[in-house]
Amino acid sequence: MKPGGETPVFKRVLIKISGEALMGGCEFGIDASAVESICHQIREIAQLGIETGVVVGAGNIFRGLHAAERGMDRVTADNMGMLATVLNSLAMMDTLEKMGVHTRVMSAIELKAFAEPYIRRRAIRHMQKGRVVIFAAGTGNPYFTTDTAASLRAVEIGAEVLIKATNVDGVYSADPKKHDDAVFYPKLDYMEVLTKELEVMDSTAISLLKDTKIPVRVVGLSTPGNLKRVILGENIGSLIS
Questions:
Q1: DSSP assignments along the chain, one per residue
Q2: Residue 200, exposed/middle/buried by CB under 10 A (0-12, 13-18, 19+)?
Q3: Strand 51-56 and strand 12-17: pairing?
Q4: pTM for the complete prediction?
Q5: Mind listing the pLDDT tens digit for each residue in 137-187?
Q6: d(C-alpha 153, C-alpha 16), whole Å
Q7: Which CATH class is domain 3-240?
Q8: What is the rounded distance in angstroms from the CA atom of residue 217 to the CA atom of residue 9?
Q9: Can you give the residue ranges of every domain in the chain?
């Protein structure tokens, strides 16, 4: 029996965290208090015995696509974005370890001094042993977003759900911070996301999830305990399935 008689509805999950969520109230970079708040939520689900994988974005440090639009070579820009995800992953690892959560960073590109190389079976074994695995450096390839990396890792590790944790509390027809008339979608299917061109995840990521039938739960990180609520089966945020 889990603490307080709580019964999770999932055993293995993949959490995608946007890089912007790590900024907190800053305009750029990593805010220690924001990272601590996010890691506290991850610790809550790890304590329930959930096998947990994490993919973190890099938008708080560097966006390869934006740099390419300003004239930088796209491959070089995306490589820089991959390195930025490593910085975020190491920050999260350090915070989780200080909270008593055993953590491993696994990188899709070779960075032996900082992270283990990503090997699928080793990653699964880490999770089975109760370690939170943070997947860094995206897919290791340019032109693929960290959303696609999250979808790919979710498929590879056999995650039962992909939790997309952002600064917004679900999926809207437009940015609710900029548009007062933005419509909230509590439930969508994969094709609706593609046909409506909703920017919750890129089309490559959604198509992969559609083909493998892995559901996505989009929730806001600003509300403490939201990740745990998803694990316990509460109907919060938006569901894409």
A1: --GGG---S-SEEEEEE-GGGGGTTSSSS--HHHHHHHHHHHHHHHTTT-EEEEEE--TTT--HHHHHHTT--HHHHHHHHHHHHHHHHHHHHHHHHHTT--EEEEESS--TTTSEEP-HHHHHHHHHTT-EEEEESTTSSTT--HHHHHHHHHHHHT-SEEEEEESSSSEESS-TTT-TTPPEESEE-HHHHHHTT-TTS-HHHHHHHHHHT--EEEEESSSTTHHHHHHTT---SEEE-
A2: buried
A3: parallel
A4: 0.93
A5: 999 999 999 999 999 999 999 999 999 998 889 999 988 888 888 999 999
A6: 10
A7: alpha beta
A8: 13
A9: 3-240
The answer to whether 60 and 6 have CB atoms below 8 angstroms apart is: no
Q: Is 4's pLDDT higher than 80?
A: no
Closest Cα partner for 163 from 23, 52, 88? Answer: 52
Residue 122: the pLDDT is 98
* Nearby residues of 71 by Cβ (< 8 Å), 6 or more positions away: none
Cα–Cα distance, 96 to 162 (Å, whole number): 20
**Token output for 91:** 């920050």
